[in-house]
């Protein structure tokens, strides 16, 4: 049975980057998303991309594309809801999500999250005291509670949903750079270009 599947959250507006698809921007000789796939795919039994809008723009990756179904541009929680639905369809026990704009993910992300959380808990990555709620492992049973949360609450903050459920924080080292560095702005992309060149 498939136990752990992965979903890359690649939706959103990329407004701080001037619009377009942030994960498809060039980083080194590849795209930001190539880096995410390369680091994350070996850690999960199946992998999909979640996004808003026309899926054909990500077709070249050859991965299943799962669209948001809750609403249009409702933030990462809508993507996590779609991810949990897909994980349930795959017969998985857990879904690990990562953001499509985090090109330096830890190679032991899935292992550490799985190791440290009880079966009913959400495991959320932290680094340097900062919580990264989109880099998390979710029991698929949370699909219903999350659907209710999105319908009932006015907040769309991922952390608010996490805090409403049993969860555990899992700290990752930043030796060699923060593995959850995410590209939000053109200057972040500059910084990522420098880091991608490092051996
Ligand atoms: N599925 C889905 N994912 C989203 C949505 N908005 C943001 N995300 C994802 O959530 C993560 C964090 O996104 P942000 O960088 O905060 O938002 P963004 O829309 O990409 O960029 P900004 O407009 O600059 O805030 C990324 O992985 C995005 O792909 C959405 O409406 N739907």
Automatic annotation (TrEMBL):
Residues annotated as binding Mg(2+): 101
GO molecular function terms noted in the UniProt entry:
GTP binding; metal ion binding; molybdenum cofactor guanylyltransferase activity
Q: Does the keyword Disulfide bond apply?
A: no
Keywords associated with the record: Cytoplasm, GTP-binding, Magnesium, Metal-binding, Molybdenum cofactor biosynthesis, Nucleotide-binding, Nucleotidyltransferase, Transferase
Where in or outside the cell it occurs: the entry states: Cytoplasm
One Pfam family linked to the record? NTP_transf_3
Record text about domains: The N-terminal domain determines nucleotide recognition and specific binding, while the C-terminal domain determines the specific binding to the target protein.
Kindly report the protein's main subcellular placement as a broad class: cytoplasm
Q: What is this protein called?
A: Molybdenum cofactor guanylyltransferase
Q: Which organism is it from?
A: Tianweitania sediminis
Catalysed reactions, semicolon-separated = Mo-molybdopterin + GTP + H(+) = Mo-molybdopterin guanine dinucleotide + diphosphate
């Amino acid at each position: 049975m498939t136990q752990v599947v992965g979903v890359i959250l690649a939706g959103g507006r990329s407004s701080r980057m001037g619009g377009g698809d942030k994960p498809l921007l060039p980083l080194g000789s590849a795209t930001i998303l190539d880096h995410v796939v390369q680091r994350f795919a070996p850690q999960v039994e199946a992998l999909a991309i979640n996004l808003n809008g026309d899926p054909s723009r990500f077709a070249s990756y050859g991965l299943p594309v799962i669209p948001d179904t809750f609403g249009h541009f409702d933030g990462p929680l809508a993507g996590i809801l779609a991810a949990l639905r897909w994980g349930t369809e795959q017969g998985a026990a857990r879904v690990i999500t990562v953001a499509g704009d985090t090109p330096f993910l830890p190679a032991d992300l899935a292992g550490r999250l799985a190791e440290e959380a009880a079966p009913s808990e959400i495991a959320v990555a932290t680094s340097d005291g900062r919580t990264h709620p989109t880099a998390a492992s979710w029991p698929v049973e949370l699909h219903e509670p999350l659907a209710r949360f999105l319908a009932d609450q006015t907040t769309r903050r991922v952390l608010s949903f996490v805090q409403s459920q049993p969860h555990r924080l899992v700290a990752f080292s930043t030796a060699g750079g923060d593995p959850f560095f995410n590209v939000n702005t053109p200057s972040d992309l500059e910084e990522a270009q420098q880091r991608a060149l490092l051996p």
